[in-house]
Amino acid sequence: MHLLRSSGALGRCPQCGEWNTLVEETRAPAGRASQGSGGSGAAGGRERDRRARVESVATASTDEAPRIETGIGELDRVLGGGVVSGASVLLGGEPGIGKSTLMLQTAAALASRRVLYVSGEESARQIRLRAERLGATADIDLLCDGDTASITRALDERAPELIVIDSVQSLHSAEAGPYPGTVNQIKYSTYEILDWVRAHDAAVFFVAHVTKEGSIAGPKVIEHMVDSVLYFEHAEEHLRILRASKNRFGSTDEIGLFAMEGQGLREVTDPASVFLVQREGSLPAGVVVAPVYEGSRILLVEIQALTVPAKGGVSRTFSDRIDSRRISRVAAVLEKHVGVSFSDQDIYVNVAGGIRIGEVGVELPLALALYSARTGMSVPTATTVTGEISLAGEIRPVAQLRRRLRAAREMGYERLVGPRRVREGEAPEEGWVRVDSVSDCIKAVFGAGGRG
Ligand code: TYD
Ligand code: MG
Q1: Minimal-distance CA residue to ligand 1 atom 11
Q2: Contact by Cβ (8 Å): 78, 33
Q3: Tens digit of each residue's pLDDT (9 = 90 or more) over 70-90
């Protein structure tokens, strides 16, 4: 059996503020969900009306749903400017990464609104202690219970504008079979809460644990039910990266950066240099610094490559930071157009600081890192490089060249090697070494010693 706890203080009417004036109404849980006919509660009726309304494409409202800024800038950035009323967000991540911390800080930042924090995992005492540690002991309604009926009752009574469910794995309902934690339980409970949220234009965050092994009843089962899916990832030690893998109300390009510290998560608002490795003297072979364009910001990152003779003669590529197909393609271009062989080599690629890079401008730095690793020649210090590579070995223009140049300069990189052409709309500017091909780039960086 599960030990159920509830806040025990849910008898107050959110409209008039009076205690014990609420009258309990029974709702047929499946009625609203599937038949839409059995619900006798007010919410059920409203929900039916809302769904039944047919309107014309020509006259449908184009007003944007209002957004609630959470007050946590890095979270708002990833969401696309705050959370939309009526929207649902799934926040996934490994246990211990900081999901509950982020949600409690968000709830505290929004405490001037009606916020309900539902925890099926921790006691009120534990949450209070965390809130004290975060300096976030705001007046947040707390319900320590995972039972869906208790939660929907609390929703009806408190009418919150923002709801945090921590976590979906702790949700259960007697309506969805006898065993808590099953896929059915999670789906049913999530649907019940979503139904309420949509009918009341509230917003909800569902926290979900993701384990490396990929638990069966994990967040995957509700990804398609929510509007946005965010994942919290580890970068190096204390750095955390927030990414959207689905976002109905914004892009999935932006990343949010946080540092986990003694008093909770601190936003990293100026991230240009957080992934840079501080080094004295010359660079080791295989290392290249690159300004990459992630979301709307420029980050300087260090690309590291290592090549070793392939065991059994079959070349393989290992990287969980840059797509290995991209690495193989860049290696093939180098082999064909520069004449260094990779086909008998195993290739390892890493990005220092643990950030994944999906941007095309990383291709030329990657080519240089591979070339440097294979030949043992180091890239001169204070040199940085950006560019996309075609299969013919040409360097294509990248977005935001000027901003990359500026960011590199600010970090002390005097020399940027990049594409000759700038993208349309970007005013050309002096100050970078212009190259047309990968072999040009190798000549420009390594001088006469390079084989370009
Ligand atoms: P938590 O938010 O509980 O993670 P999750 O909900 O994703 O499982 O964070 C737990 C970790 O964060 C734990 O190892 C302690 C650490 N932590 C800090 O370093 N500083 C803090 O202020 C807090 C609250 C937690
Ligand atoms: Mg937690």
Answers
A1: 96
A2: no
A3: 989 999 999 999 999 999 999
